Each structure stands twice: as C-alpha cells, then as structure tokens.
What we know:
Elements: E1 2-6, E2 27-28, E3 31-32, H1 33-43, E4 48-53, H2 57-66, E5 72-77, H3 84-90, E6 101-105, E7 108-110, H4 114-127, E8 133-139, E9 147-152, E10 155-161, E11 170-178, H5 194-203, E12 209-213, E13 218-220, H6 224-233
Amino acid sequence: MKAFLLAAGLGTRLRPLTEHVPKCLVTVGGVALLDIWLDALAKAGVDHVLVNTHHHADQVTAHVAARSTGPTVTLSYEPELLGSAGTLRANRDFVAGEDEFLAINADNLTDFDLGRLVDAHRAHRAADPDTVATLTVFRAPDPTRCGIVELSAGEVRGFEEKPRTPRSDLANAGIYAFAPAALDHIPPDAPADIGYHLLPRLVAAPGRVRAIRLDGFFIDIGTPDALERARREWRGTS
C-alpha cells in the first residue's frame, strides 16, 4: 500500500522555529514528526510513501537519506506549493493501479492506529463501491478553526472548511484513505486544497465519503502553544 505524507508547508505560525527547520522535522519526544509518521505508516502496512517538499527541502532530503528503516520514501519537490489536493493530482501516477492509498497532513500528531482507517475504508468500499474516501474526525474545541463534518450513520452528508457558523463540532483530522477515483474530482488549477476544493465535491454525491472517529491523542501542531502541549503530553505509540 502507498501513502502521501504532506509535509511541504511553510510552518508560518511556528516561526521563528521554522525559519531554520521545516515543520516536519520539528521534534516531539526527541523524534521528528516525519519519523513518527513514517514509522506509523510502516506499522499500518504502507511500504511506499511520497513526501512532498518545499521549505528547507535539502534538510528533508538529508534526513530521509539517513533513515535505516522502511518504508521506501519518494521525495517530490515543489518549487511552488501545489496545495494538499494539488500534490495528489500532480502525483496521481504514484498511486495508479492501487485499490486505495492514504494521505496525511504531517503537521498533525496522533497515536491513532492507521490500520483501523485502512480496515474501515476497505469495509466501506466492500459495502458500497461508490465510496471513494474515508476520513477521520474528532471533537473540535473551536469548530470555526477546522473543516467541519456533518455525519449521519457514518456517512459524511456535509463538509465546510473553517465555517463562521459551524453545524457541528466534528472536525476533519487530516488523515484520509482514498480510492484513486477521488483524484478525478480535484479541480485542474493549482494550488488546490483537500478541505476547500476536494472534499466538498466528493460530499456533493451521496455515499462517496465515510468517516470514522479518531480516538486517543490528537493535536494539530500549528502554533508554539500546540507544540509545547504536544511535547508535554505525547507518550508515543505502542
């Protein structure tokens, strides 16, 4: 199985730390976020990961080259950021012929078992072949800062990125399983974002998108306060 690890962001909210290091190489518990995710993906049965790069790309290249364990990593440098969905679209050949693949925002941190997402997505596809995406959701303390999901019996019936008036507090965790057919719905213009441009198109047709609840530890490491909390509370994965 293959996965995209979306790691090219500038990390502007974490400055000045990210002026000198890419956000995916920020450490929690002495381990870079990139390594935490690569190890979790390997545990879930992923054997090949595409990591997109941009900000301090040379550091990411050197870090990946120094790893001695799987999975295999392909780096995709973006001279100009393509957006999360734009990266999927530009590298769709990477997942050609796959039944499913994962896509993950590398600046999140969780002890959630990715194998559960894979199993859930396969079960959803077996029950309804029209299902093209399964996303993970969590209860957001501030829904206006997240992509908000309207869920009914496990099916995503509505989705809005950072709504002014949220209809629920169930938020997109940025950890996805997709069928390659989902990529057909990414608009052709770059940059394109999964939350703003892809998910609303998928949700517009009934039955395409399912969700499962993310349990355990989860945090979006987007600010210095969030990073401090992660470093204080993170206990790693078992």
